From TrEMBL:
Pfam families in UniProt: DDE_Tnp_1_6 (PF13751)
Protein name: Transposase DDE domain-containing protein
Domain Transposase DDE: 2-57
Species of provenance: Faunimonas pinastri
């Protein structure tokens, strides 16, 4: 593998690892509560959806909201 390819791979891997660390630490996905492969998959999808919704909220500007 070339040096540039290795650096790109390292950056991409770090992004993914940081997302998993966030799922584990913040969203308490360290232990799956649903049983079986389907339950684990569903629980992971729910956690990933929650993480994506949190990201989207930060991207959407708070327009039109005035303090009462």
């Amino acid at each position: 593998m070339k040096i540039e390819e290795g650096q790109t791979s390292k950056r991409q891997r770090k992004k993914v690892e940081m997302l998993f660390a966030h799922l584990n630490r913040i969203l308490k996905l360290d232990r799956l509560r649903l049983r079986g492969p389907n339950g684990a998959r569903d629980e992971f999808h729910l956690a990933a959806t929650a993480q994506n919704l949190r990201k989207m909220v930060k991207l959407i500007p708070m327009l039109g909201l005035k303090p009462a």
